[in-house]
Amino acid sequence: MNKIIYLDAAATYQKSDAVVNAQVDFLLNKYANAGRGICARAIATDDMIARTRARVAAFINARADQIVFTAGTTAAMNMVANMIPVSATTKLLVSDLDHHSARLPFEMQVKKKAGRVFVCNLTDDFNIDVDSIPVADVFVITAMSNVLGVPQDVERIIEAARQKNPNVLTIVDAAQFVVHEKIDVTKWNCDFMAFSVHKIGGDTGLGVLYVKNPERFAPVNFGGGMVLKIQDNDDLILNNSPEKFEAGTLPLTQISGLIPAIDNLEKNRPDLNLIKYLYDELIKIKKVRVLSNRNAALLTFVVDGMHVLDFGTLIGARGVCLRVGNMCATWIHRRLGVDGTIRVSIGAYNTIDDIKSFISYLKDVVK
What is the pLDDT of residue 1? Predict the structure, then answer.
């Protein structure tokens, strides 16, 4: 059987030995639940969570109390969509760059309240048109499309939106952006930002939600760990942020691997020269139509006369792992005029030999 060539980092990033070892060490030697335990292991787990939260805060230039651990970007977006005020007068702004997980939670809430949904304009090269952003109360911003792989100028986009409405709530989906670009939520001036830890080489089932003003919002999930006191009349006094947003047991094993995941990412980001090399080679192949640009963080294409699922099956049989379909991003595929695409995405672990082997297999498949 052929050696596996993994070119699907945008879906989930492969873990470094440091991440795996940290999680195994926690499971074998340090495992205990957090939250008011008085034994040495429980106290150590509390400390591990606090250190990890502080590391995440430094990673995105935030405060520790602004960092909420969630089950992932999807969970974070649904949480925010249920926390923010929505009414029949709400104007929601989205874009065709959005992933389903970013846009749908807010659309469902706004439509339920009979509010209005607006789609912001894109430029000819499929970036958010900063010069024509309309007035909005809530604005969902995809920092990087998982189909086109181009970083958006989030700071400028938010600044333009606030010029139209200083009170607009801005929610940034950074699930793809975080791997390739430095996040600075203070500079962005966003109200919320989310990413999934498995996108940066950590484990699945864990996400990060940044909340600019946590005291302004009430939690939507209730349970253990977020209650400070229940009064005699059953009124709740909640813990401060972030605990008030983190009902129940956190994904402790996943959290134990997050610091080494961040450390590894900051030392070794993907080499996008590999994408440029691939782009230069694929545009030479007659049947291949590349849809992303040369400077993107990933490469998306279609093969004329071949369904993307057929291509995925044939290339997969040769040991290549990549993504085919609509990437949970229906709207940008409509704009591109295709039902689905083929996506190549890389991690810091990929090499030029991986790309050259893929090109060889691709030529064999499409000939």
Answer: 43
For residue 190, is pLDDT > 70? yes
Q: Which of 266, 283, 308 is the last residue of a domain?
A: 266
Q: What amino acid is encoded at 285 in this protein?
A: I
DSSP string, 158-189: HHHHHHH-TT-EEEEE-TTHHHHS---HHHHT
Give the whole-angstrom CA distance, residue 113 versus residue 43.
45
- Residues 129 and 207 grouped into a single domain: yes
Kindly report, residue by residue over 205-241, the tens digit of the pLDDT: 999 999 999 999 999 999 999 998 988 888 888 989 9
pLDDT, tens only, 257-292? 999 999 999 999 999 999 999 999 999 999 999 999
The single residue of 39, 190, 321, 328 carrying the catalytic annotation is 328
**pLDDT score of 2:** 53
Q: Are residues 151 and 230 in the same domain?
A: yes
Dist. CA 198–CA 15, nearest whole Å: 8
Contact of 110 with 117, CB cutoff 8 Å: yes
Alpha helices in the chain (DSSP H): 17-25, 40-60, 73-83, 100-112, 154-164, 177-180, 185-188, 252-256, 258-267, 273-282, 308-316, 330-336, 352-366
- Our CA angle for 5, 6, 11, nearest 5°, is 160
The residue written with tokens 């997050």 in the block is 258
User: How large a percentage of the chain has pLDDT more than 90?
Assistant: 94
Residue that finishes a domain, picked among 266, 284, 306: 266
Contact 105, 258 (CB under 8 A): no
Q: Is 190 a catalytic residue?
A: no
Domain that holds residue 292: 5-15+269-366
